[in-house]
Amino acid sequence: MVQQNNEFSIIRQYFNASTRTPRKDVALAIGDDCAITEIKANQRLAITTDTLVEGIHFFSDIDPADLAYKAVAVNLSDLAAMGAEPAWISLALTLPKVDHRWLATFSRSFFEILDHYNVDLIGGDTTKGPLSISITAHGLLPRDKALCRHGAEKGDWIYVTGSLGDSAAGLALLQQKRGQNTDTALSQAETYLIERHLRPVPRVLFGQSIAPYASAAIDISDGLLADLSHILQRSAVSASLKLDKLPLSPQLIAVFGVEKAEQFALAGGEDYELCFTVADKNCAKLERELTHIGVDYTCIGQIRSQNANKMIRLKRGAEKVALPDVQGFEHF
Ligand code: ADP
Ligand code: MG
């Protein structure tokens, strides 16, 4: 096949190429000035955008399959944090040059994750420039159910899904590896941590399942302390956390030890786990609802009344621990 390099042939070849039956709620997809979609009368839309820029969010030699996966996953994670069901996305792709091998790998991985979550690519934009990927994702919300940051109340229990800190640890390992000239073999635990960084699993079903019972939620993209603080600020409350309850993976502890693992869990970014709060009276119902989801979750603390001086208090057992001087990732 003769490969063309103009914008329209790239779109046709790589992004208008889904082999899956399109969703019934897409009336008009790629090819016109806008896409047209349908929503039911009892639904609302949740909309989010995330951009990944070369050199800031990923190394320039990243496998395009990992890049495509992550660009979609971080957007689906935002929808999950609202309790929304992912439906459609658009893709703004800026490329320094037309590299057909790169594009083929990127697009295959892109449609793989879209197909897994039954999401349609409905449009986008293709431009030349420094490599960057910007995705807007649309999710469907039942009209009376949304999981926001502002609903946490004094006495609510604080939970997180999965384990924390693995992704930041995986990134540290990737950085270490780049600093070495020799190609040392990775242990199983190290491979696991790097995988958790490159392929975070958005908690899509989990988010929808807790939506009726949780009082607030956020996905952990900038680190537990930073993201929990967003819930606390929006809800005008404070929190106490139990350090000994933080879910740490055996792999993280094996590679970095407990102390460093705790730091990664509190302040490391890009876990894409959910942090959510639940009123005591809803805990039993929530646990019943979650028995079939197959995702671990852990209670790590409790919401307290507003405290302007100390938004988060840490304890190990009965002992108070000073809050580490850390901030989540902040671009400016
Ligand atoms: P316009 O100039 O009207 O904005 P374009 O010529 O940029 O439209 O794009 C043509 C069609 O291709 C549109 O439907 C647009 O949404 C779609 N499109 C462009 N780039 C991409 C992409 N990377 N992925 C998916 N669809 C795309
Ligand atoms: Mg147009």
TrEMBL record:
Pfam families: AIRS (PF00586), AIRS_C (PF02769). Mg(2+) 1 binds at residues 49-50, 125. Residues 154-307 form the PurM-like C-terminal domain. Pathway: Cofactor biosynthesis; thiamine diphosphate biosynthesis; thiamine diphosphate from thiamine phosphate: step 1/1. Residues 31-140 form the PurM-like N-terminal domain. Its EC number is 2.7.4.16. InterPro entries: PurM-like_C_dom (IPR010918), PurM-like_C_sf (IPR036676), PurM-like_N (IPR016188), PurM-like_N_sf (IPR036921), ThiL-like (IPR006283). It comes from the Bacteria. Mg(2+) 2 binds at residues 50, 78. Mg(2+) 4 binds at residues 33, 48, 78. GO terms for biological process: thiamine biosynthetic process; thiamine diphosphate biosynthetic process. Reaction mechanism of ThiL seems to utilize a direct, inline transfer of the gamma-phosphate of ATP to TMP rather than a phosphorylated enzyme intermediate. Belongs to the thiamine-monophosphate kinase family. This is Thiamine-monophosphate kinase. It comes from Testudinibacter aquarius. The lineage of its organism: Bacteria, Pseudomonadati, Pseudomonadota, Gammaproteobacteria, Pasteurellales. The gene is thiL.
